[in-house]
Write a structure and sequence with these properties.
Elements (H helix, E strand, L loop, with lengths): L5 E2 L5 E2 L7 E4 L20 E4 L18 E3 L2 H7 L2 E2 L5 H15 L5 H12 E2 L2 E2 L2 E3 L9 E4 L2 E6 L2 E6 L2 E7 L6 E3 L3 H8 L8 H12 L2
């Protein structure tokens, strides 16, 4: 039975079989019996490399940080995580440079985490915001009829724990609930392209091959 350590774009931590491509950290969230007892312990929510040379961890060992798993980087961003400054230093530097350009001031990791913490949660529940879907950059997640969907070209593609699922047309007008924090969406607009699960590109390739 899978452990409760898979993170959805909504930020919820669930027990699903899909492992994903990225590791995450919010502190120690589980007890000695590998049961989740809190959703976060710290404001520093980071997204890490899944593999690191010479390091192999057993998930949810007692008294150590809880290993969380994301389908991909876009999912981690939607949940409110940022690149780790240790194992993903190049990504963190690029993210921070674009972040500072957007906010117009120098900001270290602590200041970035304060902003993200306010943007991702409201009374311990996921904070969303409203936007015209036509204005959202690729990689942004929206919530439509209870389904988390990634904006990808002219489509909205459903998230699953094993990869991307059904596709619908991106609405040309109106408003949708956006899951990805607003400051991160601004970073996407500035040129940061979040890594996505290969099932998204595979579906694109399959569709193009029959045209």
């Amino acid at each position: 039975m899978p452990l409760q350590n898979r993170v959805m774009p909504t930020g919820e931590i669930v027990a699903l079989p899909g492992r994903g491509l990225m590791l995450g950290n919010r502190g120690i969230l589980h007890d000695d019996h590998r049961r989740l007892v809190r959703a976060s312990q710290v404001k520093r929510w980071i997204a890490c490399r899944l593999h690191w040379p010479g390091v192999r961890r057993t998930p949810m060992r007692p008294h150590t940080w809880t290993e969380l798993f994301f389908l991909d980087e876009a999912t981690a961003f939607a949940a409110g995580h940022r690149p780790c400054a240790a194992c993903r230093y190049a990504d963190y530097k690029r993210f921070r440079r674009l972040w500072e350009a957007h906010h117009g001031c120098t900001m270290g990791a602590d200041a970035i985490d304060e902003v993200l913490h306010a943007e991702r949660l409201e009374c311990r529940t996921k904070r969303t915001w409203r936007a015209d879907p036509a204005t959202l950059p690729d990689g942004t997640y929206v919530l439509l009829d209870g389904v988390s969907r990634i904006v990808w070209g002219d489509e909205l593609v459903a998230w699953t724990d094993r990869g991307y699922g059904d596709r619908i047309a991106r609405p040309a007008r109106g408003v949708v609930d956006v899951l990805t924090p607003e400051s991160i969406v601004a970073i996407f607009r500035a040129g940061y392209e979040p890594a996505v699960h290969p099932t998204l590109a595979q579906a694109d390739d399959a569709r193009n091959s029959v045209r």
